[in-house]
Design a protein that fits this description.
Layout: E1 3-8, H1 12-27, E2 31-32, E3 41-46, H2 51-68, E4 75-80, H3 81-86, H4 89-93, E5 99-101, H5 109-122, E6 131-133, E7 155-159, E8 161-162, H6 173-177, E9 181-182, H7 185-197, E10 202-206, H8 226-235, E11 242-246, H9 255-263, E12 270-272, H10 280-286, H11 292-305, E13 310-317, H12 324-337, E14 341-346, H13 364-389, E15 393-401, E16 408-413, E17 418-422, E18 431-439, E19 443-448
Parallel strand pairs: 1-2, 1-3, 3-4, 4-5, 5-6, 7-10, 10-11, 12-13, 13-14, 17-19
Antiparallel strand pairs: 8-9, 15-16, 15-18, 16-17, 18-19
Length: about 450
C-alpha cells in the first residue's frame, strides 16, 4: 500500500482542503502517514498571503527534491494558492516536482497521483509526465465536502464558499482563489448533520469572507441575509453544541448577523474581525471599505448584542506610506477595543497586487519595530485580562492531546481561549466545566470542576 504525507501551510481553509485530499487518497488505498521520511507521496498545500509562507514551502520542496534523487518512485507536488499563482513556472525552478494542483482542482489530486504511479509501474525508470492543473472549474466550491475524522474527533471545519471579490490592494487571494461562489444551504446543513451523527459537537464555517456567503446566489428571506439564514439553519441541527465561523469582513456585519449572537444559543461568543489598520488614510489605500469610526461602531453593536463576546483581529504594520501618526492610530484602536488576541503581520509585497508598486515602501526595520510595539501592547492587554479571569469558572470542549505536551489535553472556551488540563481519557470530547488557575498570557491552565 503506497503511503502519503500532506504538509499544510496557511489558513484553516487550507487545512480543510488538505483534509479533502487526504480523504480522497485514503479512499483510493493510500496509507496516511505523519512524516515525509518514508512516504511514497509528499504533497505541500501552500499559502501565498505572505512571501515568507511561499519561501518556506519552496525550501521544503528543495529538501524533498534532494531526497527524491535517492527514491525515484516518489511523487512530490504542490497544491493550493502558491501552486495556483505560479503554475508552470514552478517546474522551471524545481525540476523534480511531479505535480502542481491549483485551488479549484483539489478533487483531481487523487486521480493525478494514481496516474503517476501507474506510469511508473508500467515503465520503471522512465521519466513520467509532469502535471500542472491550475484551470478554473465551475462548481469547485462544492467539491470540499467530505471528511476524514479521527477517533473521537469533536470539532470540524466546514467549507461554505470559495473566492473573494473584495480586491484589497495588499491581497493576492482573489487571484489565487477566484471570485466568490457559495455552496447551497441545504448541502451545508446535510454535511453538518452527517458530522454530528459521527460525534462532532462543534463546527467552524469557513470562507475567504465567510459572512458574505451567498450574496450573489441566494435572496434575503424575512430580513435575513443568506449567511444569517445559514447560521440559523446550522444552529438548529440536533446535537450540535457549538457553531463558529471565520474569517468575516466588517462590511458584512449587518443587524441580522449581529442579532444571531443574541438569538442563537450555540453560536460561540467570539468573532475574528480583521481590522488591518486604525488609520482611515491607510484603510482607504488598502481598499478596505470602512473607516475607523465604522469599525468601532461595529464592535459596540456586537457587544450590545452579546456582552460576553471576545474579539481577535488581523493587523498589518508597515503598509506603504504608513506614517508614525497612522501607526499610532492603529495602536489606539488596539488599546480601546482591548482585543483578546491579534495576528500582527509585517506588510509583505505580493506580486500583481496594487500595493506592491505603491510609492513609499517602508524599510524592514521600521516594520519590525512597529510589529514589536503592537505585540507589547497586546501583552499588556493580556496581562490585565488574565488578572480578571484567573479563578473563574468556564467551559471547554476537550479536543484531545495538546500539540506540545501529550500529558495534557487541550480545549477551547466559547470565547476561543486555549485551555490546557491534565490528560484524562474520560474527558476527551466532552464539554467540561473548569476553573482557570494559571496563564502564560494567551494560554490558560485549568482544573476540572467536578460535581
Amino acid at each position: 500500500m503506497p503511503s502519503v504525507f500532506i504538509k499544510t501551510y496557511g489558513c484553516q481553509m487550507n487545512v480543510r482542503d488538505s483534509e479533502q485530499v487526504a480523504r480522497d487518497l485514503a479512499s483510493r488505498g493510500y496509507d496516511l502517514v505523519e512524516s515525509e521520511d518514508h512516504a511514497d507521496v509528499v504533497l505541500l498545500n501552500t499559502c501565498s498571503v505572505r512571501d515568507m509562507a511561499e519561501q518556506k514551502a519552496i525550501g521544503k520542496m528543495q529538501t524533498l527534491e534532494g531526497r527524491k534523487k535517492r527514491r525515484q518512485h516518489q511523487v512530490i507536488g504542490f497544491l493550493g494558492c502558491m501552486a495556483q499563482s505560479r503554475g508552470t513556472s514552478i517546474l522551471d525552478e524545481l525540476p523534480e516536482v511531479d505535480l502542481v494542483i491549483g485551488t479549484q482542482k483539489f478533487h483531481e489530486t487523487g486521480r493525478y497521483v494514481d496516474d503517476l504511479f501507474r506510469q511508473r509501474r508500467e515503465n520503471p525508470g522512465a521519466k513520467t509526465e509532469r502535471v500542472v492543473d491550475v484551470a478554473e472549474e465551475g462548481g469547485s466550491q462544492n467539491t470540499i465536502r467530505d471528511h476524514l475524522l479521527a477517533p473521537k474527533q469533536v470539532s470540524a471545519f466546514v467549507s461554505i464558499m470559495q473566492g473573494c471579490n473584495m480586491h484589497c490592494t495588499f491581497c493576492i487571494v482573489p487571484s489565487t482563489r477566484g471570485a466568490e461562489r457559495s455552496r447551497p444551504l441545504g448541502e451545508i446543513v446535510a454535511e453538518v448533520e452527517s458530522l454530528v451523527e459521527q460525534g462532532v459537537k462543534e463546527v467552524t464555517l469557513l470562507g475567504q469572507i465567510v459572512n458574505l456567503y451567498g450574496r450573489h446566489e441566494f435572496p434575503a428571506v424575512g430580513g435575513r441575509s443568506p449567511f444569517a439564514q445559514l447560521l440559523h439553519a446550522v444552529s438548529a441541527v440536533p446535537g450540535l453544541e457549538r457553531v463558529r465561523f471565520t474569517s468575516p469582513h466588517p462590511i458584512g456585519f449587518k443587524d441580522d448577523l449581529a442579532a444571531c449572537f443574541r438569538e442563537l444559543p450555540n453560536l460561540c461568543e467570539h468573532v475574528h474581525l480583521p481590522m488591518q489598520s486604525g488609520s482611515d488614510r491607510i484603510l482607504k489605500a488598502m481598499h478596505r471599505a470602512y473607516t475607523r469610526a465604522g469599525y468601532e461602531r461595529l464592535i459596540e453593536k456586537l457587544r450590545a448584542a452579546q456582552p460576553r463576546i471576545a474579539f481577535t483581529t488581523d493587523v498589518i504594520v508597515g503598509f506603504p506610506g504608513e506614517t508614525e501618526e497612522d501607526f499610532e492610530q492603529t495602536c489606539e484602536v488596539v488599546r480601546e477595543v482591548a482585543f483578546d488576541n491579534a495576528f500582527v503581520f509585517r506588510y509583505s509585497p505580493r506580486r500583481d497586487t496594487p500595493a506592491a508598486t505603491m510609492e513609499a515602501q517602508l524599510p524592514e526595520e521600521v516594520k519590525m519595530e512597529r510589529n514589536q510595539v503592537l505585540l507589547r501592547i497586546l501583552d499588556e492587554i493580556a496581562e490585565k485580562r488574565v488578572k480578571e479571569l484567573l479563578g473563574r469558572e468556564d467551559e471547554i470542549l476537550v479536543e484531545g492531546e495538546s500539540r506540545t505536551n501529550p500529558a495534557r489535553f487541550q480545549g477551547r472556551t466559547r470565547t476561543n481561549r486555549l485551555v490546557l488540563i491534565d490528560a484524562n481519557e474520560r474527558w476527551r470530547g466532552e464539554l467540561l466545566p473548569v476553573r482557570l488557575t494559571e496563564s502564560t498570557g494567551f494560554t490558560y491552565y485549568a482544573e476540572p470542576v467536578l460535581s
